[in-house]
Specification:
The chain contains seven helices and no strands. It has about 190 residues and is an all-alpha fold. The radius of gyration is 18 Å and the shape is globular.
Length: about 190
């Protein structure tokens, strides 16, 4: 690890890690300049890879440390992980109902009725999904700043790397989908 990164404050480390994940999303979205459409099998493989990376990052960088720390604190080891998982799911369910959005391949908007364009609804859905990613990166580096004994720089960096790796295919999938719908490349790239 670069010594300059390790010498930064934890909030600055979280900021740079978050900028990294955003940058990888932008790289994926830049695929819109090279492709107007994408083969369905390639898209499925990319999104399957992204889902696998996020599942691994979620478990190894968030759930497993939570279970370990709870045991060290004398709590039932499963309690904080289950409570956090359910609270996150409830938060997304509430926001899913409050914000109009469109899923990739969806025809009809979900959430409250709206007259927003399909591309805006799809971008809202992706933004909704990016909230927990940003929170996870913040928690990873925040645990370091709080002096949590089991928190390590390598775990925080691995989480940011995992999120970044899954953001590339996600950025490509969304931008190419919007391009296939007839939008021009540059506005799609900037929306992403």
């Amino acid at each position: 690890m670069a010594t300059w990164f390790g010498s930064l404050s934890h909030p600055l480390q979280a900021l740079f890690a978050t900028l990294f994940t955003w940058g990888v999303t932008a790289l994926g979205a830049a695929m819109v300049f090279f492709f107007k459409s994408i083969n369905r099998r390639v898209l499925d493989a990319m999104l399957g890879f992204a889902a696998g990376v996020m599942m691994a990052a979620s478990f190894w960088s968030l759930l497993a440390p939570s279970i370990e720390l709870a045991g060290e604190m004398g709590l039932p080891p499963w309690l904080p992980a289950v409570a956090g998982f359910l609270a996150g799911g409830l938060f997304l369910k509430i926001v899913d109902r409050l914000l109009p959005h469109l899923h990739i391949g969806g025809v009809r908007a979900e959430g409250p009725k709206t007259s927003l364009a399909r591309s805006i609804l799809l971008v809202l859905a992706i933004t909704l999904h990016n909230i927990p990613e940003g929170l996870a990166v913040g928690v990873g580096f925040g645990a370091l700043g709080s002096g949590v004994p089991s928190a390590t720089m390598s775990a925080a960096l691995a989480l940011a790397l995992g999120i970044g790796l899954q953001n590339f295919p996600e950025g490509a999938a969304v931008s190419i989908h919007l391009r296939r719908g007839g939008s021009s490349s540059l506005p799609i790239f900037w929306q992403r």
